[in-house]
Design a protein that fits this description.
- By secondary structure, the chain is an all-alpha fold.
- The protein has a domain of about 210 residues.
- It is built from 14 helices and no strands.
- α3 runs antiparallel to α10.
- The longest helix is centred in the middle third of the chain and has 33 residues.
- It starts with a helix and ends with a helix.
């Protein structure tokens, strides 16, 4: 019964995504999209791929820093393969920025790291990543609200979304820095401690949460280094998107426009739709119209990003297979934790 409900919710979000995708492509003709790519140069494609890889490498290095705080030193190239494997699962599960965390924790077990301890390093990494992304989204949204003319309904939606992200960031960090046992309270509130399969889980959650709090409150050197690495990745992301736009023959885009494109894209990928289907494309059309860059360019950029993510997904799924993991074993581990 629980699986039926879960699958029904996923199916609903997929339907919403498909509807948004159909609506998006009705806004623009195929000929307009074709013109956007007509004079593309291969060197910009190579530079885009290079910058994308460097960003993944930096994110992996940040994870390595966090793993070091629990007493383990693992080759960055091993972690890079685990990171890509996790990204592939995240890409095809609801919410394209989340979902692959248990996979990364399972792969860490090969190095003698208990699953719950490995998962705590992954969640810590995710908190740093999503909170920095959320802060930048809030900044970009405030800039858009105060400087860009847009329809009233779009303005209201953007204000509500901005308040939501700001509230979530403040709430999570308040809980962490005040030792409020965020995950344990959620576990108990959902009455998961009453379920038989989770009867031995509570102590693991206490330790899991202790590691996350320790990183933010005690491992100061590592925390600040992780934030510096995150900022470097964001700087490279500007280059990545500049080259993606150059593939589309857009050479005069300002730094602020790129900033808003990146942050709005990140917000679309947080929606609970597998591969952010439709949500991403609709979001790109909306922001490109607001910025006066044209809907066709927005669709073109979405296609470039989709191609890159599909390549990462295929590589990641191959890594999973080489490590002997499949959907059945991943699902079983999620349930037993």
């Amino acid at each position: 019964m629980e699986n039926i409900k879960r699958n029904s919710v996923i199916a609903l979000f997929i339907l919403i995504g498909i509807s948004l995708l159909i609506w998006t492509f009705k806004q623009i003709s195929f000929e307009e999209i074709k013109k956007v790519f007509f004079y593309s140069e291969h060197k910009y494609v190579l530079l885009f791929v290079l910058f994308s890889f460097l960003i993944i490498f930096l994110h992996t290095y940040r994870w390595k820093i966090i793993i070091g705080t629990v007493g383990h030193n693992i080759s960055i190239f091993k972690l890079l393969s685990y990171k890509i494997a996790g990204m592939s699962v995240s890409f095809i599960t609801p919410g394209a920025k989340v979902g692959g965390e248990p996979v990364r924790a399972m792969l860490l077990q090969k190095h003698g790291i208990a699953f719950h301890k490995g998962l705590s390093t992954v969640i810590t990494d995710k908190i740093v990543d999503l909170s920095s992304q959320g802060v930048l989204f809030v900044v970009a949204a405030i800039v858009a609200i105060t400087t860009v003319a847009m329809p009233k309904d779009m303005l209201i939606l953007l204000i509500i979304t901005t308040l939501f992200f700001a509230g979530m960031i403040i709430y999570v960090y308040y809980q962490i820095f005040n030792d409020r046992n965020l995950f344990l309270r959620l576990f108990r509130k959902l009455k998961m401690n009453k379920l038989k399969i989770f009867k031995n889980t509570e102590n693991k959650i206490i330790e899991f949460e202790r590691i996350i709090v320790k990183f933010h409150k005690e491992d100061n050197k590592e925390f600040y280094l992780a934030m510096i690495v995150t900022m470097l990745a964001w700087i490279l992301m500007f280059g990545e998107y500049y080259f993606a736009l150059m593939i589309l023959n857009q050479f005069g885009v300002s730094v602020m426009q790129v900033f808003m494109i990146i942050t709005m894209m990140g917000a679309a990928y947080l929606m609970p739709v597998p591969m952010a289907l439709g949500v991403f494309e609709a979001g790109q059309v909306m922001i490109f119209k607001i910025l006066g860059l044209g809907a066709a360019v927005g669709i073109g950029l979405a296609m470039v990003i989709r191609a890159r993510d599909t390549l990462i997904c295929l590589i990641g799924l191959s890594i999973l297979g080489l490590n002997g993991l499949n959907w059945k074993t991943i699902k079983k581990k999620e349930e037993l934790f």
